[in-house]
Amino acid sequence: MFALLGVLCVPILITVILGTGLLRRVNVYDAFVEGAKDGLVTLFKIFPSLLGLITSVAMLRASGALDLLCSFLKPITSALGVPSEVVPLMLMRPVSGSGALAVVTDIFKNLSPDSFAGLCASVMMGSTETTFYTIAVYYGSVGITKIRHTLKAALIADLVGMIGSVLAVRLFLM
Length: 174
Prior knowledge:
Distance between the termini: 37 Å
Number of helices: 8
Radius of gyration: 21 Å
Number of strands: 0
Order of helices and strands: HHHHHHHH
Shape: extended
């Protein structure tokens, strides 16, 4: 039953959108073309920010700077009870969702999703944000350049989410 509903979901959604447009006497094709044009304009506005962000993440991972930073932070994170395998995730998550996902996949492969580090990584992925990516996309699309207070608040929220993830797993799942 649910499998059939999943297969029919997109065709039903398209039919509802087209039917609503016809009932309201909207030229659906013209509205679609106008929306696509607006989407391309937005893409060209945010592309430089995204390109810079993607390039910096690739350079960070390829240079070994991430590993160096992890080893530098190890005494602090060990004192907080954070598994050493999760530290790269803590550094990568605010910057890159795909980079963070790669770190989580490595944790799952090497330690298992049910390990303490695997559970911490799972909760951390759900309770933190790709801060720099989000700021680059949303602020870049509307031309906001002064991000100082937003960045501080978002990074503090990420830090609280990361530490809270470890505490929540320790309290409720271990």
